[in-house]
Amino acid sequence: MRQKKGMFLMPRRFSLKTRLLSLLLSAAMVLMFLPASAFAADDEQVRVGDAWLGSATRVVSCGEGGTAAYDPDTKTLTLTNVTINHDYNAAIWNTVEGLTIKLVGKNSINSGEQTGILSMQGCGLLTLTGEGSLNITTADGQAIYANTGSLLIKDTTVTASTEAFDTCAVSADLGIEISGSTLESAIASGNAIYTPGDLKIENSNVTTSNDNQNNKGYPAIWSDGDITINGGQLKSTCKGGTALGAASTISITGCTLESASTGSNAIYTPGDLTIENSNVTTNSAGNLPAIWSDSDITINGGQLKSTCTGSDALGATGTLSITDCTVENKGYYTALYSGGKMTLTGGSITAEAEDNAILSRSAMTITNATVKATAQKYNALRASDVMKIDGGRVEATTFGENIYAIHMQPMDDGSNNGRMEIGGGVELYVKGFSGIFVGEEATIADAHIVIDSDEWSIDMPVKFADGYDIALALGGDSMENAEPFDWYSMSLEPYTPNQPGTYRYLELLSGAKHTLRVTNGMISELNGKQYGDNVTDIPAGSPVTLTLTVNEDAFTAGEVFSSWTLSPTPRDLQIDGNVITFTMPAEDVEIRATGDIPPEPGPDAEGSPLFGLALGAVGGTLVGLTFYAAHELGITQTLRETLPAGAAIPANRGELALLLWNAADKPEPENQPAFTDVSDPETAKAAQWAIEAGLMETESSGKFAPAKRVTRLKVFRTWKAANH
Fold first, then answer.
1. Where in 12-114 does DSSP place strands (E)?
2. CA-CA distances (angstroms) from residue 647 to 392, 577, 600, 640, 706?
3. Which residue ranges in the chain fall short of pLDDT 50?
4. Going by fewer Cβ within 10 Å, which terminus of the chain is more open, N or C?
5. pTM of this prediction?
6. What tens digit of pLDDT does each residue of 69-83 get?
7. What gap in Å lies between CA 118 and CA 167, rounded to an integer?
8. How far apart are CA 611 and CA 358, in angstroms?
């Protein structure tokens, strides 16, 4: 039974009422002991140490060479290299509405068991700013507190630490904003940063820690309102409590964020969580999820790495949407969890978990994403409604016994038994004890599905979307023993002996249909079947074996057949005479029989070794052959004997470059490949190297022209030069 989810209970954070009551009682006790001068004609004044500053007294010395200067006109307190040690009440006591504390040089405050900076009730906004820095330490009080006011830390550097329990290092009742600043806040047990209002962090470097020495589970950072983080860096660690949490929503944009908790959530909110173009790393060693929202989670762009050893790596009670993000999640229960719809679009997602790697209690949609999901005990992918995979590559692996790698779980109310829709150029690889289980049916469109299981491959009825067909169906008790079969001649009902549902290994290739066109020739045989015309429809991704016939009448006078050329050139193209094999690309392919005018034999033709080879190749009989045909035949025989065993004779410049490069053990070219007309990375390297080695030449256009035909004589001469 999985633990759900409960996150973090109210007793884990002390109540605002308790906090405020304690602070107000403390303030009242301090006020009882204030001197009468504190309430003299100066209505707006601020105390620094034992000195009150206002209209009458504006400057006081603080430590060796340090000064505190107050300007009542601008309501600005300037601290210049001050050292303040004050332990019987607040080190800086503010009664000025809208006070600004300007920092110059290095400043330090040690307030012992009292608050470092206290802004009293009704004073509104307290601002800390300036090019200098401030280090505040307390033994048992708050470092900074704005009572019923707000706090702005802007364009400055502040370090705040307290060894206190059950309090806050930095807090403000009406909200906190940190802008363009560096803030380090640490507490022994309590909140490093707390506000009942909103917390806004913008383009700042913030580091917080909570040691939770008394194990009460206080969050390191907590807002009873919204948290907004825009730019900058945030690092928050907490022992026992939530590292970063808000009672409303959390929004993270353009930020590098690290959040870790040893006993609770790294990030938690009962509201929406939004992460935009950020680099987020979270870690939870407790029994609560590393990242959790009781509402919806939306992640766009950036990187996310989340680890949890006792619960989910990332989860939401509502919907989960991840777009164009690089995700590396490891969880105990799940790596990705949603109580509502889950949408994964683009990007790369790696999900590992002890239980279910990726689990949605509703529908799941994966679009043009690279997903690798691995589960140790249960399902790699699991959904309760429709699962749609459109485009991209999905790998689903489980090591659990008697478990399906992909499982469509019925809804709790029984309203949906689960459906699966696969299409849009999907590559789906499934491995587990069993492959795929779908309660209702699976619809397959343009997809390549490979299932390698110990027992069942597919446990579902299957249909194919309109306009799609099966290009290849392999099945058997293993990958090695898989054989092709005619899908349509078989019943698709599962559990039938020797049917698709019982195969341990099953490979299905379906695709949109594309056209083969043959110019100057005919297709006499396609994949073992006879064809009477030169145009046919082939699904993308399907294997093609053609036997072609040359139409010699199509050549001009004096021309003879030279070779077959294909446009575009498939990467795995193999040509053996009139037999051509390749994998159909996702576009039309034109095959052309090309002809050349044979060269006139020179006076030394008979003395040519190639001429002798031509004669030998036909047993000395040239009946019905032109000199050119015999010449080519002799070269072909020579090449078959000379080239590496199993190597196909190149038909174009790209294949020739690859042959030379592979034979040379794929050396790196001196320069980066620069030919814009070569898209394949290996062909690009081969072309660049062959040009640099002087074995081939750049075309007059400055391009390499990988599809341009090469004669077998050219191949022979180039190979001979490369191996001289």
1. 46-48, 51-53, 59-61, 67-71, 76-80, 83-85, 92-94, 100-104, 106-110
2. 33, 14, 30, 8, 18
3. 1-42, 491-495, 497-498, 601-631
4. N
5. 0.73
6. 999 999 999 999 999
7. 14
8. 67
